[in-house]
């Protein structure tokens, strides 16, 4: 019996070491993807968008309280931890060797840098307009890089997934308003769902235009061979698993944030009526 217990102890210890090693590898991929930097950008965008969201919805003298609460919800340190925990949970048990090797390569680092730089650039309305114009001009002769962007979008299902982000976030905000008592009881979950779904064509159109402009700008510096290698990875099982993990991690976090924002907006709306 003692020998059996020793063997079991060794097995459990080995399993624990393996799990720690895998968690470290997943964290390494998360860092190689520069997700902490991306989350900083998304936090800034989230706070800015939240101020527009409540324009005319809450009293002007509540704006400071709203900004403070939204800044708490979009705290980049807490958000990074939340996103990573879901990312890790989805990837545990998956073979991430190919993903780790790709994003540790010079090309992998370069692609991540280009994507992040282009994302920052697109925050400038003038640059975004230029990027949209570049795609519009290129559509007349469909250069290889624009076709590559189309393949990338189709492979990663980026349009449908970003539309889902938008719909889920909107649904969560309305549900938060309902939680806080700011909506009439006639606004049932089904009514909210129908209202949100009516926004789908607008969200889809805007997503398609923005995504094409962003990616076309981001990938311009890559050679055809570099783009081919990247698409090959994205289309691989490892690329698909990684893409799924990223979607799950961010969707869960932003749904929570938007529901909490809806609840706080409701609180501010109702307090103004007292």
Describe the overall structure:
With 274 residues, the chain is mostly helical. The protein has one domain (2-271). It is 82% helix and 0% strand. It has 13 helices and no strands. Helix 6 crosses helix 11 (200-219). It is globular, with a radius of gyration of 22 Å. The model is unreliable at 11-17 (pLDDT under 50).
How many separate domains make up the residues? 1
Rg calc = 22 Å
Distance between the termini: 72 Å
Number of helices: 13
Largest sheet: number of strands, sense, barrel closure = none
Number of E-state strands: 0
- Give start-end ranges of low-pLDDT stretches: 11-17
Structural category: mainly alpha
Strand content: under 5%
Q: Helicity level, as a percent range? A: over 70%
H/E series, N to C? Answer: HHHHHHHHHHHHH
| Average pLDDT score | 92
Form type: globular
Short description:
The chain is an all-alpha fold.
Question: How would you describe this structure in keywords?
Answer:
single chain; 274 residues; mainly alpha; 13 helices; 82% helix; globular
SSE arrangement:
Blueprint: H1 2-32, H2 35-53, H3 63-73, H4 76-91, H5 97-104, H6 106-121, H7 125-138, H8 144-156, H9 158-179, H10 189-197, H11 200-219, H12 224-234, H13 237-271
Helix pairs in contact: 1-4, 1-5, 2-3, 2-4, 3-13, 4-13, 6-11, 7-11, 8-11, 8-12, 9-10, 9-11, 9-13
């Amino acid at each position: 019996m003692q020998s059996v217990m020793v063997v079991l102890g060794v097995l459990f210890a080995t399993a624990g070491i393996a799990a720690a090693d895998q968690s470290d590898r997943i964290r390494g991929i998360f860092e190689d993807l520069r997700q902490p930097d991306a989350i900083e950008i998304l936090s800034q965008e989230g706070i800015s968008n939240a101020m527009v969201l409540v324009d005319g919805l809450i009293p002007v003298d509540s704006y400071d309280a709203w900004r403070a609460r939204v800044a708490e919800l979009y705290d980049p340190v807490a958000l990074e931890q939340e996103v990573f925990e879901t990312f890790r949970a989805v990837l545990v048990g998956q073979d991430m060797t190919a993903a780790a090797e790709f994003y540790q390569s010079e090309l992998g680092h370069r692609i991540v840098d280009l994507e992040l730089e282009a994302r920052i650039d697109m925050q400038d309305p003038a640059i975004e307009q230029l990027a949209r114009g570049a795609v519009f001009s290129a559509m007349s002769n469909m250069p290889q890089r624009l076709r590559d962007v189309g393949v990338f979008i189709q492979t990663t299902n980026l349009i449908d997934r970003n539309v889902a982000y938008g719909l889920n976030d909107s649904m969560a905000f309305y549900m938060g308003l309902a939680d806080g008592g700011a909506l009439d009881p006639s606004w049932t979950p089904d009514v909210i769902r129908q209202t949100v779904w009516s926004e789908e064509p607008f969200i889809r159109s805007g997503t398609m235009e923005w995504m094409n402009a962003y990616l076309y700008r981001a990938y311009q510096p890559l050679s055809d061979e570099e783009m081919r290698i990247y698409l090959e990875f994205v289309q691989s099982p490892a690329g698909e698993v990684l893409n799924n993990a990223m979607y799950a991690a961010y969707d869960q976090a932003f749904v929570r944030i938007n529901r909490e924002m809806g609840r706080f907006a409701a609180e501010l709306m109702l307090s103004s009526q007292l």
